[in-house]
Design goal:
The complex is a heterodimer of chains A (296) and B (315). Chain A is an alpha/beta fold and 296 residues long. Chain A has eleven helices and eight strands. Chain B has two domains: 156 residues, Rossmann fold; 127 residues, Rossmann fold (3-Layer(aba) Sandwich), CATH 3.40.50. Classes of the chains: A alpha/beta (296), B alpha/beta (315).
């Protein structure tokens, strides 16, 4: 069974809506694996780790209108970890910004779906990304624009912890704490693995929560499972509660989530999905999909 | 009384701020130098001092631009062009966002601070980026006109701003227009194409050349990109000789732009005045310019050689 955007968005029961979104995220994981296998290019690890986070954001949180991708009052999303482009395309397509069949043209010549997100080519992409470290700065500009214009939209920026290696990220984190724009939110997809190896080896960040707090941010207390839809919804409740701005949520996630032999390995940051891996991985993802469907 | 380009730009920013509510201004802890401080004093809610962080500043401006604002970013030219190149390329140019980059203290104009502060590659860097417009005003009045015109461009614009008091040119017959060369003097023997401070030097050189019987045509090439190739080609097509003068390395700046545009179209002789692939040093502005070969005298010397029969072998 395929779950549709219309069904999720119109579902009145919160628990069922959540379960349907979980199902969609798992469906998107299967579609991503298939496309990455078919194309022989693209990034699995960081797309799989952020799958529930981005799906939930677009289906359970953001105020957007796919018919008006440039609507001035829309919420903004900046995927600073632009290598998870296929995930963003899948979510935008399912949400209605363009035909899901287009996902099959990912990284093709003449396609609207570039290797990394391009706002001039793909409806629904609020900022082109790819070079790491830009997202927080650009998002801060969008949030400051909301303040200047008196608009109420939210600006969400998603980084991977590798994105926080870039010095510019911390320039933006400092500046956001100075200007304190409301409804400016940082999501960290903390999957703990970057291109070359575990983050603890490549560039240890220590406690991201403590660092952000030291820089003057309001950080969601505790730990948050970025694959658990209920946990994600709890963080949304925290975002809607009282407190200072800007705000950050650090989600614990698993790089390559959903395929046992790909999880937590830097190899699957960007390696092509070969035939053998695809054959072994697909049943695992289908089983997870069936489980989510059964729980509906 | 002549004023500095940066002072004129700062005053103009404040004046435009009164007319345009969509104008926002950013600076990286040098607003009292760039003179964006005038705007800051009048419109504190639309002014963002981001501290010493040029890269962050450029991307914040990019974000503001996607939401309908017209940001003007201020910093020293060298740091804007070098510390924020990735942001200028990947956010502003790739997405064709309408942000004006005012690179102040450009060329050797921050003379005493030395080579670390001399912007000698900014035009080459900015010119190489797709979707970028590059403007090098010749005096304070042109800087003001260029700012206003830049704010009407649908894409990023780099404005190169001098720190010091520079000579005011006589008012031009035609108004400033992005992408249009203004001919300041007619001449049949050679064309001098110049930008920035070198325009005033070129006029001085042309007057001296005239006394030696050489008629130099002087073009103010304020817009380096897009280059007004037609006007340039018409002039060089008649004179057959081109001297390009700029306060910048001769690698990749106006001279390169002229050569790239003309070489496929015609045979002509060419020489350049500019930094000859070298770093500079501290000192008084006029002395540094002179030492590194950016002067009216150097233009006279090279023009004379260019305009002499048999020049091809002499050069």
């Amino acid at each position: 069974m395929n779950v549709t955007a219309g069904a999720i968005l119109s579902e009145p029961d919160r628990n069922r809506k959540t379960a349907m979104t979980r199902l969609l995220a798992r469906q998107i994981r299967v579609e991503m694996l298939d496309i990455l296998h078919q194309k022989g290019t693209g990034h699995w690890g960081g797309a799989a780790s952020a799958c529930e986070l981005v799906t939930a954001l677009y289906f359970l949180r953001m105020n957007i209108d796919p018919a008006r991708p440039h609507w001035e009052d829309r919420d903004r999303f900046v995927l600073s970890k632009g290598h998870a482009s296929l995930l963003l395309y899948e979510v935008l397509a399912h949400r209605g910004f363009f035909d899901p069949a287009l996902a099959g043209t990912f990284r093709d010549i003449d396609s609207t779906l570039q290797g990394h997100p391009c706002m001039r080519k793909t409806p629904g992409v609020d900022m082109s990304t790819g070079a790491l470290g830009h997202g927080l700065s650009v998002g801060l500009g969008m949030a400051l624009a909301a303040r200047l214009s008196g608009k109420q939209y939210w600006t969400y920026v998603m980084v991977g912890e590798g994105c926080l290696d870039e010095g510019q990220s911390w320039e933006a984190i400092m500046a956001a704490a100075k200007f304190r724009p409301e409804r400016f939110v940082l999501f960290v997809d903390n999957n703990g693995v970057q291109l070359d190896g575990p983050s603890a080896e490549i560039m240890p960040l220590g406690s991201i929560n403590a660092k952000l707090e030291a820089f003057g941010w309001n950080v969601a207390p505790g730990s948050h499972d970025g694959h658990d839809l209920d946990a994600i919804l709890n963080t949304y409740e925290w975002l809607d509660g009282p407190g200072a701005w800007p705000r950050a949520v650090v989600y614990t996630t698993v790089k390559g989530k959903g395929v046992s032999f790909m999880e937590g390995l830097s190899k699957w940051h960007g390696s092509p999905v070969d035939d053998g891996s695809w054959n072994s991985a697909r049943p695992e993802l289908l089983a997870a999909l069936a489980e989510a469907e059964a729980s509906l | 009384m002549s004023t500095t380009m940066r002072d004129a730009l700062g005053m103009k920013l404040a004046a435009l701020g009164r007319e345009r509510k969509d104008l926002v201004v950013l600076d990286a802890d040098v607003s009292s130098s760039t003179k964006s401080s005038y705007f800051a004093a009048e419109f504190p809610e639309r002014f963002f001092n981001v501290g010493v962080a040029e890269a962050n500043m450029v991307d914040i401006a990019g974000g503001l631009a996607t939401c309908g604002y017209r940001p003007v970013v201020n910093a020293f030219a060298i740091f804007l062009a070098l510390k924020a190149t990735d942001q200028v390329r990947n956010v502003l140019c790739y997405n064709r966002l309408p942000v004006v980059l005012a690179g102040s203290y450009a060329g050797l104009s921050d003379s005493f601070d030395g080579a670390s502060h001399h912007a000698i590659t900014d035009v080459a860097i900015m010119r190489s980026l797709p979707n970028m417009t590059v403007i090098v005003p010749a005096d304070a009045a042109e800087a003001e006109a260029a700012l206003e015109a830049a704010l009407a461009v649908d894409g990023p614009v780099y404005l190169r701003i001098n720190r010091n008091v520079t000579p005011d040119l006589a008012p031009a017959a035609e108004p400033f227009e992005v992408g249009r060369i203004r001919r300041l003097r007619k001449g049949a023997d050679l064309t001098i194409a110049a930008c920035g401070l070198c325009v005033a030097m070129a006029l001085e050189a042309a007057a001296e050349l005239e006394r030696a019987g050489i008629e130099a045509e002087v073009l103010n090439v304020a817009t380096i990109k897009p280059l007004d190739v037609e006007t340039l080609a018409r002039s060089v097509g008649r004179t057959g000789r081109l001297l390009v003068a700029e306060e910048h390395t001769v690698v990749g700046g106006l001279a390169s732009a002229c050569a790239e545009a003309l070489a496929p179209r015609m045979h002509f002789l060419m020489d350049t005045v500019g930094l000859r692939d070298t770093f500079t040093e501290s000192g008084p502005y006029d002395r540094i310019l002179d030492k590194y070969g950016i002067s009216a005298a150097e233009m006279v010397r090279r023009s004379t050689a260019l305009a002499t029969p048999g020049a091809a072998s002499a050069l």
